[in-house]
Amino acid sequence: VRAAMAGWARAVRGLLLDVSGVLYDSGADGGVPIAGSAEAVRRIKESGLRLRFCTNETQATRENFVKKLRGLGFDISVAEVTAPAPAACSILKERGLRPHLLVHDDLIPEFAEIDKTNPNCVVIGDAAENFTYANLNEAFRVLIGMEKPVLISLGTGRYYKETDGLKLDVGAYMKALEYACDVQAEVVGKPAKRFFESALKEMGVPPEQAIMIGDDIVSDVGGAQRCGMRALQVRTGKYRPSDENHPDVKPDAYVNNLAEAVDIILQEL
Amino acid sequence: VRAAMAGWARAVRGLLLDVSGVLYDSGADGGVPIAGSAEAVRRIKESGLRLRFCTNETQATRENFVKKLRGLGFDISVAEVTAPAPAACSILKERGLRPHLLVHDDLIPEFAEIDKTNPNCVVIGDAAENFTYANLNEAFRVLIGMEKPVLISLGTGRYYKETDGLKLDVGAYMKALEYACDVQAEVVGKPAKRFFESALKEMGVPPEQAIMIGDDIVSDVGGAQRCGMRALQVRTGKYRPSDENHPDVKPDAYVNNLAEAVDIILQEL
């Protein structure tokens, strides 16, 4: 690993960290930290490297998400988090879009300042229990009633694991609406290029001086590399050995976990 | 229209009729017959032409579907109907597949004789109110748990209209499961070639001597033409004027309704 990173790791000025599967594993009672990750975050901050958390989390406001992580021992604040809902709000304001929301109840406060009357687009997130037959039909009717349907999707995830089993993620429902309305969703969140670019801008570091560290080979690694960043895949979270044979995406290096990544990067500096 | 059909209509020996949108318009209290269609069915039968009803209906057993149509004045029997569920049952038996069913409650009796223990495939139909978050996750878990997921979809419809508004059809949910499991569904029903072929076989007429009459430009007209049949589009049911500019499919002729189609065909004979 050190050999793979020698040469370029020393040019690094900022790190983008995925959260779920890198800092902690989510679960029933809030989840459990991944060994060494809380200490690794502290070491990054002490090193003077810039740091930003880049997540596709859409089941909670950033406030609640950060509160949970602080409870698990992480030094993290709302201002350090790039997440899909606030990014979507910027786009909605910029383009004068008034959303019909098909999202998790706990995400709704993120859209408090957005005009939602007489909707001219649909925003879909990981709505979980809100993915009812009635709610999907309602979102569909709003879309199909537009001359040119606008569908904004907070991520493209296929599924995720919870303690009581696998759950369909937002990407599956996005595909259902895309097909029914013959429209292509605009994706806000990883792996969208614009989303990584806004995280880099907020961190104040150009892509060639940044490293993305994540557990998702496509969303984290592939997405970051397409923006001109280096990207490491951790062998925690949703990592599977078969990822190492992915047909399209090859990380710049593999690390066992965040702690190992930080060890190597700090030694190279 | 007569000019368009002159020459080939006289070689016809059998007619395949779509049902919803050709014989009747479905709706809250069972639907209403389309003017002249009941009489047209009687005239086909008197003419000696072979006749078969070819439908993608999956919200009821054929028994109940036929009972409803007889109540609307149509001369139709179960033995004359080609529908997706019985076609799926043949495939399940042929390949030793044991389905997990995600279908409408009223369709379940069609699968009475099929072994459903320890499922090794998922069959999805227009499940309507059964498309709950829990049921979709369950079907997904069955699929993703297979080494090679087998998904059989009873049709590919995008949406349909009911008296209380538009509803997402089976095709949208099929796409959600396809995406989540990275699998391609096997479609049973129109426009699948095999489905039309079984209808032709049951009617005992080769494709070049059969005409399909339907209201769906893609499923009815396009599907039948790919099997070597001629196909007419009626201007009833879900027909829209924009269908006449469809980029891929061009019917052999347009007719205002089934009655007009039968008038012309019987005159040509």
Automatic annotation (TrEMBL), chains A, B:
Principal place of residence: cytoplasm
One GO CC term, this protein: nucleus
Enzyme class: hydrolase
Cofactor requirement: Mg(2+)
Alphabetized GO MF terms: inorganic diphosphate phosphatase activity; metal ion binding; phosphatase activity
InterPro entries in the cross-refs: HAD-like_sf, HAD-SF_hydro_IIA, HAD_sf, LHPP/HDHD2
Subcellular location: Cytoplasm; Nucleus
Keywords from the named record: Cytoplasm, Hydrolase, Magnesium, Metal-binding, Nucleus
Catalysed reactions, as listed in the record: diphosphate + H2O = 2 phosphate + H(+)
Highest taxon of source: Eukaryota
Xref: Pfam families: Hydrolase_6, Hydrolase_like
E.C. number: 3.6.1.1
Family membership noted in the UniProt record: Belongs to the HAD-like hydrolase superfamily.
Chain's role: Phosphatase that hydrolyzes imidodiphosphate, 3-phosphohistidine and 6-phospholysine. Has broad substrate specificity and can also hydrolyze inorganic diphosphate, but with lower efficiency.
Entry protein name: Phospholysine phosphohistidine inorganic pyrophosphate phosphatase
Organism of origin: Sapayoa aenigma (broad-billed sapayoa)
